[in-house]
Amino acid sequence: MIRLKKVLSVQNIACETLGTLERLLKADSFEIEKKRAQDLESANSAGYSAIVILGGPMAVYDDLHYLQKEKELVCDAIRNDIPVLGICLGSQLIAQAVGGRVFKGSKKEIGWFDVSFSDEGRKGLFAGLETQMKVFQWHGDTYELPKEATVLAYSDLYPQAFRVGSAYGIQFHLEVDKSMIGSWIQEYGVEVRAENLDKNGITPKAGEVEKLAEMCQLMYRNFARMVR
Hints:
Blueprint: E1 6-11, H1 20-27, E2 31-36, E3 50-53, H2 65-79, E4 84-87, H3 89-97, E5 101-117, H4 119-123, E6 132-144, E7 150-154, E8 159-164, E9 167-170, H5 178-187, H6 189-194, H7 199-202, H8 208-224
Parallel strand pairs: 1-2, 1-3, 3-4, 4-9
Antiparallel strand pairs: 5-6, 5-7, 7-8, 8-9
């Protein structure tokens, strides 16, 4: 009997899911084990071929026990050379776990923004992508990375993706589709109103989610090659 490769998906809030990544993982016959971050009982990465830590509205520096457990899980995975993909909050957890500093940014990025990919990024996780592309964002926190981190993507304001050991952090969301974005506009409506944002500016225009799905597939393929 062939044993399927198991991927742990850690979810911090119900509305922020694997999205497009779930379909891609299943198409490659990965076994997906989904856990709520609040239900993590240990920080042991053994038994997993890869770990994905998803986003959420909480802050890394909030005094929540499960955030500490997620950071311990990241460190254990890096020690065992297990690939980790952290998205938004997940990337911030990686950044702090490896010695970086996470803090409120000067400006929230909510909606569609351009990011540029570094040479290192285009050789690895973002191989096959153009030098600059428009992505979907929903974050207010950013980070200063430790010296051992390699920046893979950046914007005019912030570092947007990085690698430390076997862990990859991405501030932006390639995994979202139109329905997910719509659910976030509802779930995070208070934030949208507080920032005086136009919902039409957040809702994808024709072709944007399709382009995002293509980017997600390319990124996923590059990440999947690292999974043993």
